[in-house]
Amino acid sequence: MGSEEEVHEAMTSDQTCLFVGPYKLEKTLGKGQTGLVKLGVHCVTGRKMAIKIINKEKLSESVLQKVEREIAIMKLIEHPHILHLYDVYENKKYM
């Protein structure tokens, strides 16, 4: 997981644009029990990604542990029919 120094803030705002790491957030693709999924566009390459944003403050400790376990498992999986986890950015409030 990225440190706060690497991320400086997992989410920063400049009036109309939100960013997570090098990704500019665009439209909302969906909402789930643990977070929000937005379309992200890499600022350099223009590659489009699904970005899941989780507000850690709204999760119980047990749910947060499950999310962290899911991330650890997804980092290990490489399969053409399973989504690939590219990056994890985290600060005190979001992951």
From TrEMBL:
Positions with a binding annotation for ATP: K52
Alphabetized UniProt keyword annotations: ATP-binding, Kinase, Nucleotide-binding, Serine/threonine-protein kinase, Transferase
EC number, as in UniProt: 2.7.11.1
Domain Protein kinase: from-to ranges: 23-95
Record-level GO cellular component terms: cytoplasm
InterPro entries, per database record: Kinase-like_dom_sf, Prot_kinase_dom, Protein_kinase_ATP_BS
Gene3D superfamilies for the chain: Phosphorylase Kinase, domain 1
Domain of life: Eukaryota
GO BP field: intracellular signal transduction
Molecular function GO terms recorded: ATP binding; protein serine/threonine kinase activity
Protein name: non-specific serine/threonine protein kinase
Reactions the enzyme catalyzes: L-threonyl-[protein] + ATP = O-phospho-L-threonyl-[protein] + ADP + H(+); L-seryl-[protein] + ATP = O-phospho-L-seryl-[protein] + ADP + H(+)
Top EC class of this enzyme: transferase
